[in-house]
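Regression test case RT-17, inverse folding.

Input:
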């Protein structure tokens, strides 16, 4: 039986690229370049690359990027986009909890919750961090984003969802935030690339930033 994060991204590539939360690619890649000191000799792994938006943009800027994801649908769309952009990228299907790489990359990126924080348990999330670290060379940089655990302490998660309005393809039916586990459980409906309405039941982990 497929997990929710596998079913969610089936036939959900073109529509995904229209979502409001994936429109910051240029600025995000600007930040990555600054963190990497614009060193184009670095070999980068993009974990949970999805439709390849960061992999493609960074490759266009001259970086060597390998993109990995668990979704056949999103990888297929990423390859099509890369071809249209005229760039060659090594896209591979892998589970981030069981990567086959060891000490091969100079940097790793994992943005927009690219796998991390979507797992059912802390142990599964730790496996992602452990496997990405294993794929890196010594003193390599690992850049990743996660949900800010302080945000729902000051704001209503439901209000945030409602404020998105027609900016997102999804309709949120219900959600809860557990203050003990810092996990958000969310149910709703979204539309895939074929226009089919699908129900989803999502669990996300929030983390508090260190001071």
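Golden output:
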């Amino acid at each position: 039986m497929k997990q929710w994060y596998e079913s969610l991204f089936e036939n959900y590539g073109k529509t995904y690229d229209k979502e409001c939360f994936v429109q910051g690619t240029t600025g995000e890649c600007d930040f990555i370049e600054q963190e990497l000191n614009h060193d184009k000799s670095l070999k980068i792994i993009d974990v949970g690359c999805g439709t390849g938006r960061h992999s493609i943009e960074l490759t266009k800027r001259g970086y060597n990027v390998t993109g990995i994801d668990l979704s056949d649908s999103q990888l297929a769309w990423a390859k099509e986009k890369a071809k249209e952009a005229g760039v060659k990228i090594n896209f591979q299907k892998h589970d981030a909890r069981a990567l086959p790489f060891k000490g091969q990359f100079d940097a790793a990126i994992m943005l927009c919750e690219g796998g991390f924080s979507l797992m059912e348990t802390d142990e599964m999330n730790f496996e992602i961090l452990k496997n990405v670290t294993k794929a890196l060379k010594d003193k390599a940089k690992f850049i990743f984003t996660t949900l800010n655990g302080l945000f729902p302490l000051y704001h209503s998660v439901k209000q945030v969802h409602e404020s998105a309005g027609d900016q997102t393809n999804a309709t949120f039916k219900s959600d809860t935030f557990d203050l003990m586990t810092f996990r958000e459980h969310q149910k709703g409906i979204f539309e895939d690339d074929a226009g089919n309405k699908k129900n989803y039941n999502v669990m996300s982990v929030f983390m508090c930033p260190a001071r």
